């Protein structure tokens, strides 16, 4: 009879316990009798022969988890710093310095193709005049980015910095924003709220795509949009003076009824007191076509004008306001109550959009600044 070593017996028992194969298959593969394998298993049943494979498996899992974590970190570094790879070495060192509290310096250097020794030398080297100016400009960029609710890209950011007294160009501002991951917010697809399936009267399109106005209170435009909250939809009606794109009337409600649009109109008239003949432009929604709304327009001396059917570009100015509002405020968080949302909208309109936000159409200044300039 062939005599087997203790190591062979232990390995045979371990295979039988951990391989998932039947005992008969294991005995056949190893060339031992089925009863012999059974005796060995009884003999070593009290010993923990599976501890080693389980420990090996745990070590392998930990190794794979560690590699996966490193790969994720490297991918994130490349996502944030891919633009820096095209920049000179000092700018890559600056990126490493900015993110050294998030990732290890050695990893950052490896991903940006620079040496840790070079980075350490760069840190101890006196900062050049250009680098000092970059740091100063970057500090202003970060402040203005917060004040603009993350909405400013390179052109408007450059205007803001020049007004603050910094002599910088768009290329420099764009480079610093790109390297430091400062990007303007992105928008989503517009949701249509207009209900034009009604039998109410339709006014002609007096604007005919011409949204320019040489004087205040010559052309107004209004529309309604919906905002999602945990309590349900909140509806917002606004009116803009097309001369300055300033929001001059607005109202919110949990229902999209004609009184919502009327309250916004009342606010605009009380604020601006327009002369008779001012054009009020809207879409063909039932709120604006209703008898009560048209009666209000007539009483205030406003001339009604309506967009063509299904043509959202006929009221583009108000649509752009809603796009800015949602990108710069609404889509930043989940809103719990209508009251909270209404308060935030009020602060956005009066504290930022009308008074601070730079509009390309107005030459890069705010509506209030534009009105003061042409007054």
Give a verbal description of the structure:
By secondary structure, this protein is α/β, with parallel strands linked by helices. The chain has 4 domains: 6-49; 52-124, no CATH class; 129-179; 219-374, Nucleotidyltransferase, domain 5 (2-Layer Sandwich). Helix content is 51%, strand content 10%. The protein has helices spanning 6-18, 23-30, 34-43, 51-81, 89-98, 105-111, 116-124, 129-147, 154-163, 170-179, 258-272, 286-289, 291-300, 316-328, 338-353, 367-374, and strands spanning 219-229, 232-241, 246-253, 279-282, 303-306. The chain has a 5-stranded mixed β-sheet with strand order 3-2-1-4-5, with helices on both faces. Strand 1 (219-229) and strand 2 (232-241) form a beta hairpin. Helix 2 (23-30) packs across helix 3 (34-43) and helix 8 (129-147) crosses helix 10. The longest helix is centred in the N-terminal third of the chain and has 31 residues, at 51-81. It is elongated, with a radius of gyration of 34 Å.
Instruction: Write out the strand line-up for the largest beta sheet, numbering strands in chain order.
Output: 3-2-1-4-5
Uncertain stretches of 5 or more adjacent residues: none
Number of helices: 16
CATH fold assignment of the largest domain:
Nucleotidyltransferase, domain 5
Tell me about the largest β-sheet: 5 strands, mixed
The share of residues in helices is 40-55%
């Amino acid at each position: 009879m062939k005599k087997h070593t203790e190591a062979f017996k232990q390995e045979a028992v371990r295979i039988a316990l951990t391989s998932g194969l039947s005992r008969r298959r294991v005995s056949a593969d190893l060339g031992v009798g089925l009863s012999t394998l059974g005796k060995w298993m009884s003999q070593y049943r009290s010993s923990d022969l599976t501890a080693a494979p389980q420990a090996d498996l745990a070590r392998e899992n930990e190794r794979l988890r560690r590699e996966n974590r490193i790969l994720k970190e490297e991918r994130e570094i490349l996502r944030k710093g891919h633009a820096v790879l095209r920049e000179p070495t000092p700018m890559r060192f600056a990126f490493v310095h900015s993110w050294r509290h998030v990732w290890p310096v050695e990893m950052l250097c490896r991903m940006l193709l620079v040496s840790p020794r070079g980075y350490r030398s760069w840190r101890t080297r006196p900062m050049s005049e250009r680098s000092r100016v970059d740091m100063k400009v970057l500090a202003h960029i970060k402040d203005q980015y917060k004040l603009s609710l993350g909405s400013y890209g390179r052109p408007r950011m450059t205007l803001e910095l020049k007004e603050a007294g910094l002599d910088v160009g768009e290329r420099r501002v764009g480079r610093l924003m790109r390297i430091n991951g400062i990007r303007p917010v992105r928008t989503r697809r517009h949701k249509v709220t207009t209900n034009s399936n009604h039998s109410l009267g339709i006014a002609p399109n007096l604007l005919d795509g011409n949204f320019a106005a040489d004087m205040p209170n010559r052309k107004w435009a209004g529309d309604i949009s919906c905002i999602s909250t945990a309590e349900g939809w909140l509806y917002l009606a606004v009116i803009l003076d097309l001369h300055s794109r300033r929001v001059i009337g607005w109202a919110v409600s949990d229902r999209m009824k004609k009184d919502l649009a009327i309250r916004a109109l009342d606010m605009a008239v009380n604020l601006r007191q327009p002369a008779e003949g001012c054009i009020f432009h809207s879409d063909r929604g039932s709120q604006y076509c209703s008898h009560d709304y048209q009666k209000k327009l007539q009483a205030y001396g406003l001339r009604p004008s309506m967009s063509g059917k299904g043509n959202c570009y006929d009221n583009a100015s108000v649509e752009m306001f809603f796009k800015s509002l949602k990108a710069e405020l609404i889509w930043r968080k989940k809103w719990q109550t209508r009251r909270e949302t209404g308060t935030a909208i009020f602060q956005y309109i009066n504290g930022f959009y009308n008074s601070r936000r730079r509009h390309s159409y107005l030459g890069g200044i705010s509506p209030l600044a534009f009105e003061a300039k042409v007054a």
